[in-house]
Amino acid sequence: MGLLRGTAQIGAVLTGLFLATAAAQAAELTYKDKLVDGFEGKDFAPEGGLYYKKNYEQSAGTVEFQDRVVKSGKGALRLSVKPHCPVTERLCSERAEVWERSKLRVPYDQGVWFGFAVKFEEPIPQDDHRYLVAQWKREIDAGADGDFSPFLAFRFNEGKFFITVETNLVPGKEIQKGKRAQCKDGETPVWLRPDTNQTRALVAHDRNFGPDNGDEFTACTDKITVIDRGNPLPAPETGWIDFAVYTKPGPEGTGHIEIFANGKWIVTVKGRIGHNDKGLGENQYFKFGPYRAGGPGVWALYYDDFRRGLACADVLDPKICPFP
Question: How many CB atoms lie within 10 A of CB 301?
């Protein structure tokens, strides 16, 4: 019995040392360090700087470290949401989002590269509903007045994948109400939202996103420009999609975004990107996972190969990086 007790005590000490070392490693990281998490274990890796936030809307979600569906290695995340919102709460959302830790967030005016892979679990929703797969936002300080949508959002609706960029309200011309605008060269279709002092631009979509989709983007503006690199977004049903994304907000017109998917250059976005309202914080942050308006059934997504760094080569093959 004494030997068994001694062995157990040694095991407990070693476990404690491992956890303490992992915590110390995480504490030493800064926003300048490369972050990586392949979701190989039973919890988030200290060197990835990620965590699952707990609140009312997140209680609709489940996070599972699993090995049945993976892109690389032996593990991946399955994030899912189930019905949680009361029918009477119109603005309620259901989320299972993984966040960057606050101490590792990148300054708002600093460019940074993100990489992650996502796979849609069948059945893929086909309804007209609000779904998000990943989003980038600016920190909001206590007491800030306003509604601040993500400055970059990977969205999904009616079985189709599309990406939007958000900024403060900018000048734009409505072309035809109820129909997606066909804009001139140097202009981008946008949804002007004066009630929230925001403008939402459509910057990329998959091949299934037809002329009848995106009918909220009825105006055109030259304050946000999109360079189409000749490749549409991969469709949700095609399997794993590996993204590399560069974000550098610039509400005054210096914003810059690059999006790659499965090693192909999708778009470059420049101009007014993000918000500059009073009460907003100093940093940008990334979160990923299923996020929807309250709805029926279970919606699940798989994620793998998270990485982040200040250099393109931290997340993307250097041979196809548009700049270091």
Answer: 23
Confidence of residue 196 (pLDDT cuts 50, 70, 90): very high
Coil, strand or helix at 23: helix
Protein fold of 34-46+108-291+303-320? Jelly Rolls (2.60.120)
Dmax of the chain from CA atoms? 82
Domain boundaries, the chain: 34-46+108-291+303-320
Q: Comparing C-alpha atoms, which of 140, 105, 136, 107 is closest to residue 279?
A: 140
CA distance 210 to 182: 12
* Confidence category of residue 144, pLDDT binned at 50, 70, 90: confident
pTM: 0.91
Contact 134, 155 (CB under 8 A): no
Closest to 287 measured CA to CA, from 156, 132, 144: 132
Taking the alpha carbons at both ends of the chain, their separation in whole angstroms is 60
Q: What is the pLDDT of residue 25?
A: 53
Tokens of 124: 């893929």
Contacts of 142 (CB under 8 A, 6+ apart): none
pLDDT tens for 248-263 read: 999 999 999 999 999 9
Q: Which of 150, 118, 127 is nearest to 137 (CA)?
A: 150
Write out the H or E segment, with its range, that includes residue 215: none
- Report pLDDT for 143: 72
The string of DSSP letters for 106-119 reads EETTS-EEEEEEEE
User: Position 279: which residue type?
Assistant: G
